[in-house]
Write a structure and sequence with these properties.
The complex is a heterodimer. By secondary structure, chain A is an alpha/beta fold. Chain A folds into 2 domains: 98 residues, Orthogonal Bundle (Arc Repressor Mutant, subunit A), CATH 1.10.10; 217 residues, Dna Topoisomerase Vi A Subunit, Chain: A, domain 2 (3-Layer(aba) Sandwich). Chain A contains 13 helices and 17 strands. The chains are: A alpha/beta, B alpha+beta.
Amino acid sequence: MAQKPRRTSAVEKKLVGVADVVIAAAQRRKDPTIAIPVRSLSNVTFNQRNGLIEMGKRKQARSFFNVGMAKKFMQTVLVADALCELQRANLTTSLREIYYRTKHTIKNSHENTLDTQDESDPLIEDLEVTLAALREELHVRAENAGSVVGPLVLVDDGDRVDCAKLGKGGYSVPSIVEPEYLQITRCTADFVLLVEKGTQWNRLSEDKFWRTYNCILLTGNGQPPRGVRRLARRLHEEKRLPVYVLVDNDPWGYYIYSVVKQGSINLAFESQRMAIPKAKFIGLSSGDPESYGLPRNVGIKLNDKDIARARELLAYTWFQKKSWQEEIKRMLSSGLKYELDALANKDFQYLTKKYLPRKLKEKDWLD
Amino acid sequence: MTARGPKLTPSKTSPVATPPKPAVSAVEMGARQRDISVSEFFTKNRHLLGFDNPRKALLTCVKEAVDNALDACEEAGILPDVVVKVEAVANGEPPLPPSQASRFRITVADNGPGIIRQQIPPIFAKLLYGSKFHRLRMSRGQQGMGISAAGMYGQLTTGKPVQIISRTSARAPAHYFEVQIDTKKNEPRILEKKQIDWESQRGTQVTMEVEGRYQKGRASVDEYIEQTIIANPHARLTYLTPEGETKEHPRTYPQLPPSPREIKPHPYGIELGMLLKMLQDTKSHWLSGFLAGDFSRVSPRLAEDICKAAGLSPRARPRDVHGQAAETLYKAIQSTKIMAPPTNCLSPIGEKAILSGLYQQIKGDFYTAVSRPPAVYRGNPFVIEAGLAYGRGSEQGQESQERQAMPLAEGEQPQDDNELARVIRYANRVPLLYQQSACAIFKAVLDTSWRNYGVSQSRSALPSGPMVIFVHMASVWVPFTSESKEAIADYDEIRKEITLALRECGRRLGAFLRRRERADSEHRRRNIFELYIEEVVESCNRLKGGRLPTAKLKEQLQKMALARTGGEKTDELLGKNGSGPEGLPHSIIVTPEGVEGEVPALIGEAPGEAGSSNGAPEEEAKTAKPSRLTGKTRRRRRGKRGTAGKPTTRAMRRKA
């Protein structure tokens, strides 16, 4: 980790601001209140011009002298305190450690400040949006849940990492990939392929697909973590690489693509730094089973949850393009979803040898 | 013998064989017929009287003697003072610990009226001899069988006679008897009688030696004594256990229950055979006189009406009414509208006394008691009373709180134990310890939907929770399912009354639980701010790098908290807005702050005696401010005993 000179950072000032809110309110005999931007679908708008999901202006007040909110307010201040401690010590930590750090029994009672991690996680997100500080800036990291391989040279903590020379396993993408921590020194690839599942990423890596097609292979094992999204965004922005997304053919796959492209509803304020509005959806499209001759029996019947989710997607403003409406409706009318793994039905290397080459050649993707 | 019989081994008595010569002739058979005395019958069928096994036998013996003692005292208008002593007898072998001994000596002494010399042998050594069978008046004993059966059991199993000492007054001498029962004749056999010196001035003491087994727990002698105390708070009971302990149960209720009157049978309650017998035995000369004189609630006018309806002359001689005429008369009686029987023959325990008994014996947070108005089954008046004790009591409550003081780890839940409620059943103040599931009381408890009152209950099971349900049936004739008096028969009228009483208890429990929940949430509301202010201030201080004047910030926040929860005024309001104990008639509520409701004050005896459960709550009761007379409250008055105007103590609820 890069050593930084010890001076009060902007984020630390913001965190101390939480205490100031309480002190100022107490002096004026007012109820201490923190205004937290609402993190829900009702408070996000899709900006057609830049293609990003942006957070609206609606805020919710979290007051201390309100029976329903008192505990949450107290917890929020506690978490702010813990985050500030991280800033001062210049350490990074995980969500779970924040939970343990802030958990204790309240004096003169049998009550814990927090009972489960489910209580502290949303508070960190609350503080992120309230203070307009990214999670990385708050020094909270996730697990290294992503991998990258390809013609890419990085410098991580002063160590040179050549992603072309890391075998099949690749480089594990750290959770914080901001330029202060991770520098991109060389990149000769033509595009970035972001794969939903580790299985397919392994297949492509093993087959040295990245060498044949001169690309960077990224995976986030499911919903890509922030590190992976941020790295893709940096490659897109700094190296002008197009980003293609390869996901399962189901509502969750579509949503992963949309999060990469436009940002998420929950943390819409991060879209600015995370989203890649020009990302393309390369597959698995609901037309593919027909065009690639996938038999019907490798499909999976859509369950009620899938159908409900697909209907929700149809209503999102950022899925209003005609091609997307058709795509989702086609899945719904077929009543089936397909996993990427289903391609193995034809051949173990079908993805590497046939599917992706044909897709790239035909430029068969959705925007 | 039958077609399906084993074919391979042809039986000797095959139908093909010549008809066998009858082994016994009718004359011989006739010669064998003879009287069976009651004593002989019960020698063989002792389980009918509750002597099925040694453990139950020991209980039955104690029970019969104590019941008799209490009955005698009450009938004579004496506050009972009974001493029960159970000791293991070595019988020549090295002494065994009580739990392994097989022979016990039971001694029960009372301060009752005593028994005159001539009556002592038949009372204790003649089955079906007694004062209680032929009259309609509420008493513990009914048949005149219990104590002599106990004596007979002792005689059968140990060969030892029953020893009795009785004295009728300080001036009269004390008589000592040793009697046995002649089982063939059902007559007493006196082995020893003499005048002795006795330290007691008046009373009776009976000693029996029986085969038995002493084991604590459910349906034990100990449980019987404890339950007896609950239903008889006017009695003082000293129990000397086989283990050498002395358990004193002081009197907690100062008054004897009003003495029940004896009544004549109600016409609805008799059967045809009984009517025929009464017609033969009556002293009246006219039929109308017989009807009006030998039954309750039949006026001379009504008697004439009945005669008219039956087509009989009111002047007919009762002895001449038989056969068809008697049957018409019986039908006429049944179809005539007759007032319900008088109820002064009953002496219910009363709500106050039940509360007192429950409060002294069972630890809890909430007690309530309900006496139903009298009702009638088969012409027998009866009263159902129910009581309820809920909770673990302040002491145990604190214990469990201390256990919870250990902060919970992730995934841990506050402990929730699923104990089931306990049902304690009484008939004429006698605890019923066996055959719970055959009893109308138990069935009524199961059929009550306790969930309506905030208590969880699985399908066709007892409600769960720390709860004791008390049900008492007082009647001139309690319909038991068997001679051993263990379960009450399931008459619709009885079942209905029990259910109604339980529902009332349930409603009050529900009100209490809701009220406690409300108080808790208010308490929490106040506490929330108090607790969290500390945390918020500490966090702010750390955020500010430890340079915050914490005391000042804390004070500012605390001021705001107090203003926002309405300060002391809220407390007062909460105590007064209709949720006070006055909303719950005949109930006691125990909170850590004090006791509210009709808290019984201990009388006479020194409080806090060995083994009893009257520690902390009682002291609180004494320190609690006496305020508000019951007259001022919205007490519901029901029955003749509901209006007792004793001042109640009510501790002011204070939230710290």
